[in-house]
Amino acid sequence: MQEELSILIQAQYPLIYLVTSEEERAERAIAAIAQTKANQRRVFLWTVTHGIIEYGQSRQITQHNTVSPEAAIQWVIQQKEPGIYIFKDLHPFIDAPATTRWLRDAIASFKDAQKAIILMSPVQIVPIELEKEVVVLDFLLPDMAELNQVLSQQLEQTKSRRTSTETREKLLRAALGLTKDEAEKVYRKAHVKVGRLTEAEVEIVLSEKKQLIRRNGILEYIEEDETIDSIGGLDELKRWLRQRSNAFTERAREYGLPQPKGMLILGVPGCGKSLIAKTTSRLWGLPLLRLDMGRVYDGSMVGRSEANLRNALKTAESISPAILFIDELDKSFAGSSGSADSDGGTSSRIFGSFLTWMQEKTSPVFVMATANRVERLPGEFLRKGRFDEIFFVDLPTPEERQQIFNIHLSKRRREIGRFDLEQLATVSDGFSGAEIEQAIIAAMYEAFAQDREFTQLDIIASIKSTLPLSRTMTEQVTALRDWARQRARPAAASVAEYQRMEF
């Protein structure tokens, strides 16, 4: 990114929008560019609190009457010498007619001049009047080399003994996805808690990193104790996932395999779609980040929602390889096609940005999405190339229901030989995995209230008193099955084998 920024300045691009929350690090990078032979220029900073000051000078040495954006841009236009002018957090003012006009005047006056304005902000807002004039760049989070410098400085400051190459690499990888300041704080915290930076402190760095990811409120770091074997049935889906358990390794790249993009799991509610996504994290040994699309949307400021999504995706990429989990995708993007009337087109822009990212991403971020209502999904999501595979999770077969009863009863009792699993599977025809679990829990409550052990009859009574979703929403389930029969891959091995024989 720094090389690209240097080229743009050298090529006399007049207006550059740098999206970042790391002001100091970005300032140092720009100042370093300004010191090169190709870009010999002075650097000035503008804030709404201090007006324009020269980089490296005291805040007391300010240019008078440059606090307002219009006055500051006018001052920049009047300067004759080459310069780089950084405007911090101009986004709240950029939509004002006067500010937009002054920026356009500045662009016109910069022709054949060694001058450039850099708008630095964590939020990207570009008025339509400036769209053809501005170049937008994302200031990337620190890579391994920069984090290595941070770690070396921390080791030197704390006078810690040198770490092994393997330990150092683990500490650096654990901090990927953090800003430079966040990495410094995390390394300091690890040193304070233990007294030195060794492999044991990797867990401290990772735990703090999880808190920092949770803090943004959009991405959530999920830890799942269950393994994929705790899910009954879905053998075809499990086989597909196990085949790709080493897909992100260097050995897979050397073999010539492309990195998996993602998968979409459609199906009846309560049949284990979300649990499959969570347990895949343990199977593959990758961090699981849940993207809360509801929190992406923020109507408090124009462009805020788009910035939220962009920052979340950048964070996911920075700690890749990772799994990005989006639950109930159908609810997240259901209204994107007609959002112009309801939210000014925000949903459509979010949808478009996400689709573009999925199509063009090169980082090893595997997208796992679930959906219940396929008719609500925009057609663009379902075309080939977005996901590696679309799986359909149907209601469990009798054999799968036996497995599900076995799993849930084994979790609650050591000895389950007194239960007739085949009878329970027959009685629970049409039940989802979640409904089977709740039937067992209801039977346990009934027996607990009577101060006795729950029995087969308690479970059967609980099942018979429950109306499953497959009967209350028969039309929806039937329509989903009809759609998936020709368009999705069955998650159950028995169904997949039957379809192969039929074909």
Question: How would you characterize the overall build of this protein?
Answer:
It is a single chain. The protein is an alpha/beta fold and 503 residues long. The protein contains 24 helices and 13 strands. The chain folds into 4 domains: 2-138, 3-Layer(aba) Sandwich (Rossmann fold); 144-215, Helicase, Ruva Protein, domain 3; 252-391, P-loop containing nucleotide triphosphate hydrolases (Rossmann fold, 3-Layer(aba) Sandwich), CATH 3.40.50; 398-429 and 433-467, Helicase, Ruva Protein, domain 3, CATH 1.10.8. The protein has a 7-stranded mixed sheet, sandwiched between helices.
Parts with pLDDT < 50 across at least 5 consecutive residues: 496-503
Provide the number of structural domains. Answer: 4
Largest pleated sheet: 7 strands, mixed
Task: Label the structural class.
Answer: alpha/beta
Computed CA radius of gyration, to the nearest angstrom: 28 Å
Shape: elongated
Helix content: 40-55%
Strand order of the largest sheet: 7-9-10-11-8-12-13
Question: Strand tally, please?
Answer: 13
Strand percentage lies at 5-15%
What is the terminal separation in angstroms? 51 Å
CATH fold annotation of the largest domain:
Rossmann fold
What CATH architecture of the largest domain do you see?
A: 3-Layer(aba) Sandwich
Average pLDDT reading: 83
> With helices defined by DSSP (H or I, 4 residues minimum), what is the helix count?
24
Q: At the first level of CATH, what is the class of the largest domain? A: Alpha Beta
Q: What is the H level of CATH, i.e. the homologous superfamily of the largest domain?
A: P-loop containing nucleotide triphosphate hydrolases
